[in-house]
Specification:
It comes from Megalops atlanticus. This protein has helices spanning about 1-15, 20-40, 55-65, 70-80, 100-110, 120-130, 140-155, 160, 165-185, 195-210, 225-245, 250-255, 255-290, 300-305, 310-320, 325-340, 340-355, 365, 370-385, 415-420, 460-480, and strands at about 85-90, 95-100, 190, 390-395, 400, 405, 410-415, 480-485, 495, 500, 505-510. By secondary structure, the protein is an alpha+beta fold. Strands 1-2-7-4 form a 4-stranded mixed sheet. Mean pLDDT is about 90; it is low at about 1-20. Bound molecules: protoporphyrin IX containing FE.
C-alpha cells in the first residue's frame, strides 16, 4: 500500500509543475489515507484513551451554558480542543464524536446490513409506551427494510419523483399568493418571520404528496388543528434533546419534559390518523360507486401493501414530520442568503428564466437543468445542515475507527456541522459561496458535507425535497425581488434537534 501511495505521489509531482487543486486534493487524500493506515497499524486504542470533557464539564456546558441549543457549536469547539474524535456523556449516554470526513466515511462503511441511527431514542420509548407502530425514522432491522424497499420505489427514482411536480407546483402557487397577501398587509412591505409561513408550506407540500389532497395550511385562515400540529412538532423537537439528556431519576423529579413530549406525539399521531382515515374513506366510497381509483399518493399506496394499519399510521406520521422543518428551514435560509447576496440572486433568476424561456412555471425536467440552483441549495445545506449531527449504532460487532476500537452498541455521533464549516475542507467556510460547487478546480471530500446522509439509511425524501425547493425558489425569484429587511439583523442558527434559525427572518418581497 505504502509503495503505491509513494509512486502515486511521485507521479503527481512530476506530472504537475503547476499543481492543480484537484491534484492537491488527491495528494492530500493519499497523505490522509497513509496517516490513517499508519495510525491503524499502530496499537489500537481503547475508549479509555480517547480524549473528551468530564461528565460534569459537559453537563455544565449543556445545561448551564445553554448548550442544548448550541450543540452544533460544541462540535466545532470539541474538534478544536480534542481533535477529530472525542467522547462525551450526553446525560446518561456515552457517545463518541467523529468530526473528520475520512473518519465519518469509515463509520458509515461499517454500518452493516440494517443501519441503525440510535437504539436509545426517546422517540422509540414513546411508541413502545403507547403501543404505536414504528415508521421509517424509528424502525429497525427487517421491519425497516420492508417499508424502505416499498417506499423507495415511489419516492427515490428521479422518474417517480417527476410525477409530483404538478401537485407540488399547485402548493407553490398558494405560497406565492400568501406572500403577496402578507406583503400587502404589511405597512413596510416586509414579511416577518418567514419561517412560520414556510412551515405551513412544508406541511402542505408533504401532505399533497402523502394524501394527494390539500389541507389548507396556506389558506388566509389557517385551520387551528394545522397550527397545533406544527406547534407539536416544534415542541417535540425541543423536548427530544432535553428528555434524552436527562438521566432517568431526573424524569421522576421533573416529569414535565417527558409528559409534554408524549402529548406532542399523541397529537401528531392523532392528526395523521384523522387525515389518513378520511382519505381512505373517500376512496372506499368511490370504489363502492364503481368509480376507478387511481391513487399515486403514498398513503393509498402504503395502505394497499398488506401492511398492518398501525404501520401505515406510524409511517405517514413520520413522513409528515420529516417533511415540515427540513423544507421550511432550508427554504428560509436560502431566501435569507439570496436576499443578502443580490448578485447570486440575479444570476440564479437569469438561469431560471433562461431555462424556461417564455414559460413561468417550471417542471421537474426544467429544474434538472439548473446547475446554479443545485449549487445554491448545496451551499445552504453546507452552511445550515438541517441535521447538524447524525448518529449510528453498530450493534453486531466492534469496529475500528481512526485507530480506536469502538465497542458494539456505542452511540457514534457524526459531526456534520463541524466538517461542513471546517476551513481545512472549505475555504472561507462561513461565507455563502455557491459557486464553489460549480468550480471543477475545487475538490471536496465526498463526506465533508452530506446533508441527506449517505448509504442505505440516507434520506428517503431527498428527491422530493430537492424538487420542492427548486420549484419554490424558481417561482419566488420569477415573481419577486427578495431583499433583506433594512431593520433586520444577522440571523444565526440554533439546534432544536434540527438546525433552525435562532431568531425571526424578515424579508421584503418586491413584486417584479
Ligand atoms: C432539505 C430537506 C431534507 C434534509 C436535509 C433531510 C435530511 C435527512 C437526513 C440527514 C436523514 C438521516 C440520514 C441518515 O441517517 O443517514 C434523513 C432521513 C429521513 N428523511 Fe430526510 N431530509 C429532508 C427532507 C425530507 C423530506 C421532505 C422527507 C419526506 C418525504 C424526508 C424523509 C426522511 C425519512 C423518512 C428519513 C428516514 C430514512 C430511513 O431511516 O430509512 N426527508 N433526512
Amino acid at each position: 500500500m505504502r509503495h503505491y501511495q509513494r509512486m502515486l505521489q511521485q507521479a503527481l509531482r512530476v506530472s504537475s509543475r503547476r499543481t492543480s487543486p484537484l491534484l492537491r486534493w488527491v495528494e492530500k487524500w493519499v497523505e490522509s489515507a497513509a496517516s490513517l493506515k499508519s495510525s491503524e497499524t499502530r496499537q489500537v486504542k481503547t475508549l479509555d484513551e480517547m480524549p473528551g470533557p468530564s461528565v460534569c464539564a459537559f453537563a455544565w456546558d449543556l445545561f448551564a451554558k445553554r448548550g442544548l441549543s448550541r450543540l452544533h457549536e460544541l462540535q466545532v469547539e470539541g474538534r478544536k480542543r480534542y481533535g477529530p474524535m472525542w467522547k462525551a456523556s450526553f446525560g446518561p449516554i456515552l457517545t463518541v464524536h467523529v468530526a473528520e470526513p475520512a473518519l465519518i466515511e469509515q463509520v458509515l462503511r461499517q454500518e452493516g446490513q440494517y443501519p441503525m441511527r440510535s437504539d436509545l431514542s426517546s422517540w422509540k420509548d414513546y411508541r413502545q409506551l403507547r403501543g404505536h407502530g414504528y415508521g421509517l425514522l424509528t424502525a429497525e432491522g427487517e421491519e425497516w427494510q420492508t417499508v424502505r424497499s416499498l417506499l423507495a420505489k415511489h419516492i427515490l427514482p428521479p422518474r417517480a419523483v417527476e410525477a409530483y411536480d404538478t401537485t407540488l407546483n399547485s402548493v407553490v402557487t398558494d405560497l406565492l399568493e400568501k406572500l403577496q397577501l402578507r406583503c400587502r398587509q404589511s405597512p413596510r412591505g416586509v414579511v416577518t418571520d418567514i419561517a412560520t409561513e414556510l412551515y405551513r408550506f412544508g406541511l402542505e407540500g408533504i401532505s399533497s404528496v402523502l394524501f394527494e389532497s390539500r389541507i389548507g395550511c396556506l389558506d388566509p385562515q389557517v385551520p387551528p388543528e394545522t397550527e397545533r400540529f406544527i406547534q407539536s412538532i416544534n415542541t417535540m423537537f425541543v423536548m427530544t434533546l432535553l428528555t434524552m439528556a436527562m438521566p432517568g431519576w431526573l424524569h421522576r423529579i421533573f416529569p414535565k419534559p417527558w409528559d409534554t413530549f408524549c402529548q406532542c406525539w399523541d397529537y401528531m399521531f392523532q392528526f395523521a390518523k384523522g387525515h389518513i382515515d378520511q382519505r381512505l374513506q373517500e376512496e372506499a366510497k368511490r370504489l363502492a360507486h364503481g368509480e376507478e381509483v387511481e391513487g399515486r399518493y403514498l398513503t393509498y399506496f402504503l395502505s394497499r401493501q398488506g401492511l398492518p394499519m398501525k404501520t401505515v399510521y406510524s409511517n405517514v406520521t413520520e413522513l409528515l414530520l420529516a417533511g415540515v422543518d427540513t423544507i421550511s428551514s432550508t427554504l428560509s435560509w436560502s431566501l435569507y442568503q439570496l436576499s443578502r447576496h443580490p448578485e447570486v440572486q440575479a444570476s440564479l433568476r437569469e438561469e431560471v428564466l433562461g431555462v424556461l424561456g417564455t414559460r413561468r412555471v417550471p417542471g421537474a425536467a426544467d429544474v434538472a437543468q439548473m446547475p446554479l440552483m443545485k449549487a445554491v441549495v448545496k451551499e445552504v445545506l453546507r452552511l445550515y445542515p438541517v441535521i447538524p449531527a447524525n448518529a449510528r449504532v453498530i450493534a453486531d460487532r466492534d469496529i475500528h475507527v481512526g485507530g480506536y476500537l469502538i465497542p458494539r452498541n456505542t452511540l457514534i455521533t457524526l459531526c456534520h456541522y463541524a466538517t461542513s464549516r471546517d476551513e481545512k475542507l472549505f475555504s472561507n467556510p462561513d461565507a455563502f459561496l455557491p459557486h464553489r460547487w460549480l468550480s471543477k478546480e475545487q475538490g471536496h471530500h465526498p463526506y465533508a458535507s452530506v446533508p441527506f446522509g449517505v448509504g442505505k439509511r440516507s434520506c428517503i425524501g431527498r428527491r422530493i425535497a430537492e424538487l420542492e425547493l427548486y420549484l419554490a425558489l424558481s417561482r419566488i425569484l420569477i415573481q419577486f425581488d427578495v431583499k433583506p429587511d433594512p431593520e433586520g439583523a444577522v440571523v444565526r442558527p440554533m439546534t432544536r434537534t434540527l438546525l433552525v434559525p435562532q431568531t425571526e427572518i424578515n424579508l421584503k418581497f418586491i413584486e417584479r
